[in-house]
Hints:
By secondary structure, this protein is mainly beta. The longest helix has 13 residues, at 192-204.
Amino acid sequence: MLARKPLILFTIICTFIISGCASNVNVAKQLSAQTSVSPLEGVLVARVINTTGYRLPFNQLFIDPKEVNTSKEVKTVLAYAEGSPVGDSSLFAVSLTPGEYSLSAVRSIIFRGESYYTRSSFTDPEFGVFKVQAGKVTDLGTIVYYAKPADDVYNDILVRLPDSAQGQVLKDYFPDFANNEEVLTWERDERDEQRFSAYASAAQNPTTFSGEVLAPDGSLYFLGKLGVVLRYSADDGFETLAVDTDLQVNAFAQNDAGDRIAGGFEGALYFQKAGGDWENIAIPEKAAIHHLGFYQENQFDVVYSIDKFLHIARFNNEDLSTSKVLNTYDYAGRWEVAGVALEAREKPPRPHNIKTVWVSQQGEKKILKVSSYRAGKWDAFNSTDTETYRFSPDTWEMNVVEEYDEMDTILTAGAIDLGIKQPGYWSWSGKPSYYSRINEDGPWREINAQILTCKEGQTMQSNDVCNDGSKAVKARSESFSFKSRPWFWDNDNGLAIVNFSDVDFWSGQRKSETSILATDDGGVTWEKTELALPKPYCADIIGVVTDRILLTCSGATSDFYESSDRGETWQHVRQQQDF
């Protein structure tokens, strides 16, 4: 069935307007808004995964009844996502009248005051059709939003995987509506093999990553959105590892023996003995894995959350069926196991759900940060409450970090530590501040985000003035923003990929220039170089690689480049596959 893209585009525009155009669509009723489904209706379930760098969730599906092209009485159905997103996934569960349907568009629209942010992707005419039957469940499986690179542009495509965990979303999130009857899905046709091939190609060519992990043997792992992990080493190059899931992998660890653990959202947790196959580890289905780490080689720790609770469990490599919970946190009561009694909150807080957890090693300190949001009040832009704790890696006993006024984040930037302070409420620039230090005991040096320059034909003198041979004038100060973390090959010398931008007040025209700068004093001062990027959008330096510059085209392609001569030349070490 052909999807009418002009009509759908018009419908999407009209949904911005509450009056006048609301009658162009029928809004499907979400399962969360009803206690039971009419026996005359069926249930439709779908999962949409965003594999791009676009951070806002996809929260709308546009569904066309078969007769939408032939009858003015038949309208497109608009389905809203249920609750907050699960990582980069959005879950849909609605009731529909029986009939034959097709999916015409997937959209993200997020309002912020009087502004809104939106992105849409339309299906092609051969995306497929499905049926909804009274009293039955139709599960559309996993639908993937992928930005496929094509030269200097992107083709937004939707790929579906129809046989992915049929009925699992309903069972895990809406058990009252699940039944043991046959679950319907897309009508089979001759293009299913082609669709799976497109899905596999998208999975193996991730354009963004949910994290990077450095293993004890020096291997670097990049965590993909569709169960794929890229392994990189200077000797072997890149290797693609497929974990047995089509969900996002956002936690990973490897021990000295070569054993691996990988985890993500919706209870995805897997263990791989060195040289063996991935084994599924039983953990609550709604669990979101935030951190994984080996403990004394034969055990590993899992930090995961379920709604308002954060749990830390320890597993044994030889018996994956059992685990011991070492500590538990919730916003109201804080930690069950604390080194000292935690101060009571001034008044009983409203329930908060866990949003994000960071576990980091800062010198000899183990630090855990947990952020939460008011239950039922998830918002793409609202700030969250964040608490910082120091813990023992043996017991995970928690202590409040007193006077924690150093850095919000400490990263590796080649040969040095890079500290990042996020901007405060009164920040003039709204940009984070960067600092460098040689080692844990060394002082922080603020990395400057400005450079002194001269006009064309002038030369810079040692006293920060410009001279054209006849007169001296004060050098101009230009601000820039870092496109990725800077990288240092020793304590003082390094480079940074930055962006200079300027807006003409009168015309509104914006100028933007990307440059590679060099420093010889730890980032206190910078100067421009003649170095160039291998590709315009390949500008993300992987800081944990210390003996060469490893550059990823994150957000653009799955390409990687490396340089062993500090940016003078580049080698193309991984290339996006064409599909």
